[in-house]
Specification:
This protein is of the alpha+beta class. It has one domain (about 5-130). Helix content is about 50%, strand content about 15%. It is built from seven helices and five strands. A hairpin with an 8-residue loop joins β4 and β5.
Length: about 170
């Protein structure tokens, strides 16, 4: 079952020159290949363009001037969703920081194109091999948070720890 995009994933600013439909049209323009290349289903809701397979959903939306992708493994709790930034940080072993140098400030079309190109580079692995990276990427996210904060992050992380541990016990 598809859920609405995470509220933190969706920020339209009032001084934006593009309306919501135009912004989602940009995402569709640069990510439509997901339907052709992987046979994903597509649905647009009020918060996101959503591409889905039987295993995962990818919610594409906008955060100010740059697009974002949240990846959701079907059947898993909502708090286990991973942003593409966390996934790419794990897959490349390099910290991905969308707010600093990846995007061109204000150029929404260029930003959508750039994210689509980066995602396409890793799309086979992300979409077809999610079982190989899902829990390691969750662990990597926790490790980065711990390193950044010097301690385990606040209360909600307890759920993520237990979630990851449940897979380790199953092995």
């Amino acid at each position: 079952m598809l859920r609405k995009a995470h509220p933190l994933c969706f920020y339209f600013v009032t001084y934006d020159t593009m309306n919501q439909t135009q912004l989602f049209d940009l995402l569709d323009k640069y990510f439509h290949w997901l339907i052709d290349d992987f046979g994903l289903s597509y649905k647009r809701n009020e918060f996101a363009s959503v591409y889905s397979s039987d295993k995962l959903a990818m919610e594409l939306c906008w955060d100010r001037y740059h697009p974002t992708i949240d990846i959701i493994l079907h059947g898993e709790p909502d708090y286990s969703r991973l942003s593409f930034g966390w996934v790419i940080s794990y897959l490349t072993n390099e910290r991905f920081n969308a707010n600093n140098s990846f995007y061109k400030s204000g150029d929404k079309e260029e930003n959508a194109k750039k994210l689509a190109e980066l995602f396409k580079t890793h799309s086979k692995h992300i979409i077809l091999e999610i079982d190989t990276w899902w829990i390691p990427a969750q662990k990597n996210k926790i490790k980065i948070w711990e390193n950044d904060l010097g301690i385990s992050p606040v209360n909600f992380l307890d759920r993520i720890y237990k979630y990851v541990e449940s897979f380790e016990r199953a092995d």
